[in-house]
Amino acid sequence: MKLPVSNGKNINLRTPVPSDAEDILKYAGDAAVARFLPLMPHPYTLADAHAWIKFTRHGRQKDTAYDFGIEHRQHKRIIGGIGLKNINREDRNAEVGYCVAKEFWRQGIVSEALELILRFSFRTLRLHRVYAVVHEKNVASFKLLDKRGFVREGTWRQGSRFTGRYCDVYAYGMLRSEYKAR
Ligand SMILES: CC(C)(COP(=O)(O)OP(=O)(O)OC[C@H]1O[C@@H](n2cnc3c(N)ncnc32)[C@H](O)[C@@H]1OP(=O)(O)O)[C@@H](O)C(=O)NCCC(=O)NCCS
After folding, report:
1. Whose CA is nearest to atom 16 of ligand 1?
2. Which of 26, 143, 152 to mutate to test the pocket of ligand 1 (most atoms within 8 A of CB)?
3. Which domain holds residue 44?
4. pLDDT score of 163
5. 78-109 burial string, b = 16+ CB within 10 Å, else e?
6. How far apart are CA 102 and CA 31, in angstroms?
7. How many domains does the chain have?
8. CB of 111 sitting under 6 A from ligand 1
9. Residue 60 lies in a domain
């Protein structure tokens, strides 16, 4: 399958490589970024960054997950990540997840990354539905999804476990038809 670079106006989505590990550590090691990411190890080490880079390669090779580094075109370094996991070929859906370094918050970076991954999801992978699962207190994330045209479909009561505690999460989804109609 043709991958792994996708060029936007301010960012590129690309496959992370070992030389990106220090840059990944910078944002993934920030507690503010990790706060609502239950799968992100905390504290985060350089070894975690290398493990993630390896994981992204395996996911792509096995067609089970597609994770990309968000590269800032001007700064020429990885400043965040976005990816698809839980890819369900039978029902043609997948879950999207994302984060960006705090210094770049509110600059439209993840909006642009989301558009690129939606294009990849619906056009390249031919998915029918893309969804996201968001902690009920993660206002930034659900406002972002609202703005990009995702629909809040409901609440999974105690649907996720953050630092040992169950909490409610919102399910957001976008259908292929909604993507095309925007
Ligand atoms: C959530 C997150 C990914 C948003 O990324 P971002 O690049 O800052 O988002 P954008 O700049 O593209 O914002 C797009 C819209 O989302 C909403 N939004 C983003 N951050 C917001 C915030 N802190 N408060 C309220 N609304 C916010 C706004 O509507 C914004 O549009 P506007 O700036 O024109 O008003 C970022 O805050 C982050 O990395 N958080 C930590 C990781 C995380 O929680 N990931 C999501 C897990 S589900």
Report:
1. 144
2. 143
3. 6-181
4. 82
5. bbbbbbbeebeeeebbbbbbbbbbeebeeeeb
6. 10
7. 1
8. yes
9. yes
Ligand 1 proximity of 139 Cβ (cutoff 6 Å): yes
Q: Is 1 a member of any domain?
A: no
Structure tokens at 126: 């031919």
Q: What is the CATH number of the domain that holds 80?
A: 3.40.630.30
- DSSP-assigned states of every residue in 75-108: TTEEEEEEEEEEEETTTTEEEEEEEE-GGGTTSS
| pLDDT tens profile 94-151 | 999 999 999 999 999 999 999 999 999 999 999 999 999 999 999 999 999 999 999 9
- Condensed to tens digits (0 to 9), the pLDDT of residues 66-101 reads 999 999 999 999 999 999 999 999 999 999 999 999
Q: How far is CA 82 from the centre of its chain?
A: 3
